[in-house]
Amino acid sequence: MTASTEAARGAGRRAVEPAARFRDLLASEWLKLWSLRSTYGSMALIAVSAMLFSVRAALADHHNWPGYSAERQAAFDPIHDAFPEEGWLFVILAAGAVGAVAIAGEYASGQIRTTFAAVPARSAVAAAKVLVLATVMLVVGVLTAGVSFGLSQAILADRGAGASLGDPGALRAVVASALLLPVCALIGLGFGALLRHTAPAIVATTGLLLLLPLAFDLENRWTAAIHNALPVPAWERLVANPYIQFNEHLATVPGSWVALAAWPVVATLVAALVVHRREP
User: Fold this and answer.
1) Distances (CA, A) of 163 to 81, 82, 244
2) The pLDDT of residue 245 is above 80
3) How many other CB atoms are found less than 10 A from the CB of residue 121?
4) 155-164 contacts: CB < 8 A, separation 24 or more?
5) What is the pTM of this model?
6) N or C: which end of the chain has fewer CB within 10 A?
7) Which pLDDT score is estimated for 14?
8) Rounded distance between C-alpha atoms, residue 69 and residue 193, angstroms
9) Would you place residue 269 in the very low, low, confident or very high pLDDT band (cuts 50, 70, 90)?
10) What integer best gives the mean pLDDT of the chain?
11) What is the secondary structure of the chain as a DSSP string?
């Protein structure tokens, strides 16, 4: 074997190694995520609360439908029953907690030091963690939103009041609800990386997602604009939640998509920067 052939083979092995190492990182982050007992509890809470509350809302309207006036029946929006806010509050809380625990728990236990000792490339570790978390939560979001929509509309169809994905706003609501889970999880991840302790990270995530939107005056143009740029109000606009009628300065649909997309990007950048710059 010539020296040039051996050199070429060595270069080829070196070119393949980084991809193999990243696959190992993905596998490691997958195992870490599912080794947490809280992951299973959060996933169960997401599925049960979303589906249970959507079925509950649809059954209530199904039962009361004969007593609705003609005007109310004509104005009825079945999509509201698929994604009732009271059920999705639990979904938002659980999804944010999954992201916060995924990294804050690793810092709290000291496992992150072992990870960085084995893999000095911290940016690769952060990228693998973000990719695994976002993918898992997206799959859960698609299943949860799709089943919630299907169950609620099947119940309402018996009254001739159900919607299909082809109806105006239906597909948008399902897609926005599916994306809401990875959005909340990545925001939780950002706070977890920043605060490094599970309880403060969950509190901060909950504050941003559920409490901060309540602090703004919707009659004022500027405070309403800040409110509209928050992730949960953006989702409420996209699913046409009934509460948006109280907003005198309603956001546009494109603006709400931008807000929903910007938050996980910012959270991911914060997590990557903190992981790269600060010592564990």
Assistant:
1) 10, 10, 21
2) no
3) 14
4) 155/55, 155/58, 155/59, 155/62, 156/58, 156/61, 156/62, 156/78, 156/81, 158/62, 159/61, 159/62, 159/65, 161/61, 161/62, 161/65, 161/73, 161/76, 161/78, 162/78, 163/78, 163/79
5) 0.89
6) N
7) 47
8) 52
9) very high
10) 89
11) --HHHHHHHHHHHHHHHHHHHHHHHHHHHHHHHHH-HHHHHHHHHHHHHHHHHHHHHHHHHHHHGGGS-HHHHHH--THHHHS-HHHHHHHHHHHHHHHHHHHHHHHHHTHHHHHHHH---HHHHHHHHHHHHHHHHHHHHHHHHHHHHHHHHHHHHTTT----TTSTTHHHHHHHHHHHHHHHHHHHHHHHHHH-SHHHHHHHHHIIIIIGGGGS-TTSHHHHHHHHTSHHHHHHHHTT-GGGGG-TTPPPHHHHHHHHHHHHHHHHHHHHHHHHHS--
Query: Which among 115, 118, 101, 126 is positioned nearest to 42, based on CA atoms?
Result: 101
Residue type, 270: V
- Average pLDDT score over residue span 117-127: 88
Instruction: Report the pLDDT value the prediction gives residue 242, as an integer from 0 to 100.
Output: 65
Side-chain-side CA neighbours of 49 within 13 Å: the count stands at: 19
Q: Is the pLDDT of residue 229 over 90?
A: yes
The per-residue pLDDT for range 8-55, each reduced to its tens digit, is 555 454 444 444 488 889 999 999 999 999 999 999 999 999 999 999
